[in-house]
Amino acid sequence: MSGKIISNPNNLQILFEDNHIIVVNKRAGDIVQGDKTGDTPLNDIVKAYIKHKYNKPGNVFLGTVHRLDRPTTGIVVFAKTSKALTRLNALFLNKTIQKTYWAIVKNSSIKPADTLVHWLKKNPKNNKSKAFVAEVKNSKKAILHYKVLKKLDNYTLLEIQLETGRHHQIRSQLSTIGAPIKGDLKYGFNRSNKDASIHLHARCISFVHPVKNESVNITAALPNDALWNAC
């Protein structure tokens, strides 16, 4: 099962939609849920889209299943019914959803493929996670697998599979091995991107539909910039 991209006045890029779920390609700068900034979150934008498209009276139900960091782009899945939300939450909890990320990192002498295992400890004061090679107090084990897809002149394109889903996991773990993500000033890259994005993209997702029991495989187009286009 796959969905066609649907254009709409809010420039919301819909990758898949049916009666139970809606999947969007998040832009850099969008927040998935409301925070202290007061900026309009993506879930409110999606609610407004549904309300307008289907002329729905009253409040629109939309369940947030997972999140992406604000500077990150790519696939975000929302539930349009409470039944779908409960079942999608179970899929994420049981790790039966496969997510693939692409990242453009600083060129370094990293291996062509590897599994990274660290213990991450979140610091709420600066909203940052520090990676340790051994367990420390209040840390959580983090595991990811990566492989090099392409070598550019100054950068390397990685494909990443997460085994755990920790706070800023990909950003922190890659930085720790000397391969910070382009634009990620917080995790050691030497300069930020002009649009405040980082070159981390939730590229693909695969799961069994929570209601129809059919396979869903979705790929999100990359942001349109020179470096992603070179990949």
Quick recap:
This protein is of the alpha+beta class and 231 residues long. It has helices at residues 42-54, 82-93, 169-176, 226-230; strands spanning 14-17, 21-26, 63-64, 73-79, 98-106, 113-123, 128-132, 140-151, 155-162, 200-208, 215-219.
Account of the protein in words:
- It is globular, with a radius of gyration of 18 Å.
- Strands 1, 2, 3, 4, 5, 6, 7, 8, 9, 10 and 11 form an eleven-stranded mixed sheet that branches.
- The protein has helices at residues 42-54, 82-93, 169-176, 226-230; strands at 14-17, 21-26, 63-64, 73-79, 98-106, 113-123, 128-132, 140-151, 155-162, 200-208, 215-219.
- The protein has four helices and eleven strands; from the N terminus they run ββαββαβββββαββα.
- The two termini are 26 Å apart.
What descriptive keywords fit this protein?
alpha+beta
Layout of helices and strands:
Blueprint: E1 14-17, E2 21-26, H1 42-54, E3 63-64, E4 73-79, H2 82-93, E5 98-106, E6 113-123, E7 128-132, E8 140-151, E9 155-162, H3 169-176, E10 200-208, E11 215-219, H4 226-230
